[in-house]
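Why does residue order matter? Because the sequence determines the fold. Keep that principle in mind as you read this record.
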Amino acid sequence: MIDIDVLAPDGGGILPRLLTIREVADILRIHARTAYRLVKDGNIQAIRVGTQWRVTEDALHDYVARGWRHWKPEPARNRPRQCKLPL
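Structure:
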């Protein structure tokens, strides 16, 4: 990943940093096909540049934030942790 700010040609500010599918997969520590599937299914917002997909850093942050809101820890179980076998 290259950390270079790119100015918009019209002088309207800095363009958002675009990540490739491979970079998204590396950041999320998932396979590239899984990252591609997340983009194709609309779970991660992306734009198409020619034949390749690009994801903005903000879109990736939004995806991770949505995941944290929906995640709930599993409740503790009331059963014993180890079962005793009859002898």
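The longest strand covers residues 52-56.
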